[in-house]
Amino acid sequence: MGDFDPAFIQEPEHRPKPAVIEADGIPQIDLSPYITITSSPNTNPEAIHNLVDQIRDACKNWGFFQVINHGVPIDSREKIQLAAKRFFDQPTDEKRQVKRGEKNPFGYYDTEHTKNVRDWKEVFDFTVDAPAVMPVSYESDDEETVEYDNQWPQYPPELREACEEYVKEVQKLSFKLLALIALSLNLAEDRFEPFFKDHTTFVRLNHYPPCLAPDLALGVGRHKDAGALTVLAQDDVGGLEVKRKSDGEWIFVNPTPNAFIINVGDIIQVWSNDAYESVEHRVRVNFTRERFSIPFFMNPAHYTVVEPIAELTNEQNPAKYKAYNWGKFFVTRKYSNFKKLDVENIQIYHFKKSDERKIDDVVSRIENIVI
Fold it and tell me: Is 0.70 topped by the overall pTM?
């Protein structure tokens, strides 16, 4: 990624500003009252109630929050970060031995696009539960599925073990976060669990090399996460920016040692019937320093029908979204990662019942996905 390619250049209105606005307002939440509840049955109910209130406020006001005392051992995080660096330090030809493509979405990739602009990054993706089962196509009458296996590189030899150890711990955390979010919506603690019986969760190792033109490019362009929940580990360099809901400003998220950054995705926005919002975010790049991050994308089973939760709708607050199939949605979305499209990629607002916009190519795909 040495020579700067115009394919990386963002439109002027989407380029990062020279001045960084730091995100003092993004909530930092101590999970210790909930993490220790199984080993301490006599945990103070008031502490849990306060924790749920904090989760509710963070989801409503930001869509993002950081968690500390989360129960994930620091050594598992350090192992995966070191193994990731050793993998990305290899020559490109070596990394491309496990290149992902349209036939298998897991593996190495270095030409991903967001909003039809190339990202300044390289990635390695792997599924948490292999093989991952997904639809073959987005056509509604095509019930065929396909299994995707992980492509593990020969080097570094410890990468697979480090990844598998890490995801076991983060998966435990992610289910606890889902339970807290359910409680914050006044739902049963286990309300979301059935959707994840055969989940399609995957993890991405991100590497953002130093960039020759950090004022023109982005590591990842503005986007929202399509899944349910994202649990992000980032290094001390930082680069994540969140679009503040109150004024639309891009806010830089300062790295907090051993914390995870959590954001609700599009699926939780739909499940909550817009009580919570999936918020736009992006990644700045650095002129002198490389950056690493590890997002854990928690996604439901491919056959999940995504629609507002029944308990959260009524006559006064009717369902705001048409139901859609998660697997079909995912398959439609993934193709834009491999090439620049002539049309806007599919988004959850296309399923809004009040949305009268017609975008020919997108609408034709939606008709295949809507239940």
Answer: yes
